[in-house]
Design goal:
four-stranded antiparallel sheet, 12 helices, Butyryl-Coa Dehydrogenase, subunit A, domain 1, binds coenzyme a persulfide, alpha+beta, Butyryl-CoA Dehydrogenase, subunit A, domain 3, Butyryl-CoA Dehydrogenase, subunit A, domain 2, three-stranded mixed sheet
Length: 384
């Protein structure tokens, strides 16, 4: 669903220019210094990037899912670390509140998130529970008007910068699986909340993850998302359905960028007396990549439109995340191959992308978890 084509075109043009002229030239610097420069952060705020998907009532741009994926195609065309900084505010760090939060909770946090004054983070994964998210063991015990949280969370994106965390914790220990889990908003600085050291990652330098530790951390009852216990796992899954579509779209952007770089290189570099691009074996890699990207683009737009029509897109989101992230990995591999020896050398940049995009097949649900979600939905639908 496109709310207003003209406004959207303007936004897409602005973002495309911002990516090309402001972000791409700073990619190497971000990777080297492992941080997003403050002047870029300010420009991101001015462009409204922290509030792309936050409803207009709370100061955001209120993009529809279709508009969001079109924007993500553009944002994907540069180092993923840039998008990561405002990605959680639009996705996993705010959507729990947007989807299931009470009006008061939304009022309290969303406007500052939309403005980029507050970074939101999503704390689901634990040392002992990754793909099996429903087995998480962080506890939340009610004592009067607070819940006391104990446990730890792992690989939490933007935790070092976060002002608030959406935290999934077990309120009912008698229910071992999903039904015992509730979702909370926990503010950074709450006594008992501490952070581990920043993780050293394979790629995506400039985007930070770390452990988040709760040691008798007292969270007001008012911060239980939606005021309802036992539905936190469902909140997390709904958040991930949307997040998976968004990540799929970012994969398309990244793949387009890598294919563009590989094509440029193949047209400039000569071997055996002609540009690499004239060789059919190189052309096959270019063609396969283009077809891959086109297929991912089409399916993502289709799924986004279905979500805008309020259809359940759990299966479609997993199809998109699986296909697009695997596709992105294939394109990265071919791009490095087309660059040849230069593909392995840092200054050409393509090896950085190769490492950066590897994460897409893992986070917000591995490819294997997407397969599981797809198959389960198929079986369920067939049984209905
Ligand atoms: N939307 C709404 N509700 C959902 C849902 C969705 N997309 N997916 C599942 N649920 C509900 C189910 O309907 C079920 O509710 P009922 O008990 O009322 O029927 C409940 O949630 C439990 O679902 P399920 O039984 O499918 O849970 P499982 O423990 O079998 O696990 C998987 C489901 C594996 C799919 C889930 O744990 C998962 O996505 N894991 C990956 C986690 C992940 O992506 N981590 C990345 C890090 S976070 S960035």
């Amino acid at each position: 669903m496109i709310n207003d084509q003209e406004t959207l075109n303007l936004l897409l043009d602005n973002l495309s220019r911002f990516v090309r002229e402001r972000l791409v030239p700073r990619e190497a610097e971000v990777a080297e210094k492992d941080c997003i420069p403050q002047d870029i952060v300010e420009e991101m705020k001015a462009l409204g990037l922290f509030g792309l998907c936050i409803p207009e009532d709370f100061g955001g741009l209120g993009l529809s899912m279709e508009e969001e994926v079109l924007v993500a195609f553009e944002l994907g065309r540069t180092s993923p670390a840039f998008r990561s900084l405002f990605g959680t505010n639009n996705g996993i760090g705010s959507q729990g509140l947007i989807i299931d939060g009470s009006e008061d909770q939304k009022q309290r946090y969303l406007p500052r998130m939309a403005a980029g004054e507050l970074i939101g983070s999503f704390a689901l994964t634990e040392p002992g529970s990754g793909s099996d998210a429903a087995s998480l063991s962080t506890r939340a015990v009610r004592e009067g008007d607070v819940y006391v949280l104990n446990g730890s969370k792992r690989f939490i994106t933007n935790a070092p910068q976060a002002g608030i965390f959406t935290v999934m914790a077990r309120t009912n220990p008698d229910i071992k699986g999903a039904g015992g889990i509730s979702a909370f908003i926990v503010e950074a600085g709450t006594p008992g909340l501490s952070l581990g050291k920043i993780d050293q990652k394979m790629g995506q330098k400039g985007a930070h993850t770390c452990d988040v530790i709760f040691d008798n951390c007292r969270v007001p009852v008012a911060n239980l998302i939606g005021g309802v216990e036992g539905v936190g796992f469902k909140t997390a899954m709904k958040v991930l359905d949307k997040g998976r579509l968004h990540i799929a779209a970012v994969c398309v952007g990244a793949a387009e960028r890598m294919l563009g770089d590989a094509l440029t290189y193949a047209m400039e570099r000569k071997q055996f007396g002609q540009p690499l691009a004239e060789f059919q074996l190189i052309q096959a890699m270019l063609a396969d990549s283009q077809a891959d990207i086109y297929a991912a683009r089409c399916m993502i737009i289709d799924a986004a439109r279905k979500r805008d029509q309020l259809q359940d897109v759990s299966m479609e989101a997993s199809c998109c995340k699986m296909f697009a992230s695997e596709m992105c990995g294939r394109v990265a591999d071919r791009a490095v191959q087309i660059f040849g020896g230069a593909g392995y050398i840092s200054e050409y940049g393509i090896e950085r992308f190769y490492r950066d995009v590897r994460l897409f097949r893992i986070y917000e649900g591995t490819t294997q978890i997407q397969q599981l979600v797809i198959a389960r939905n198929l079986i369920r639908r067939a049984g209905q």
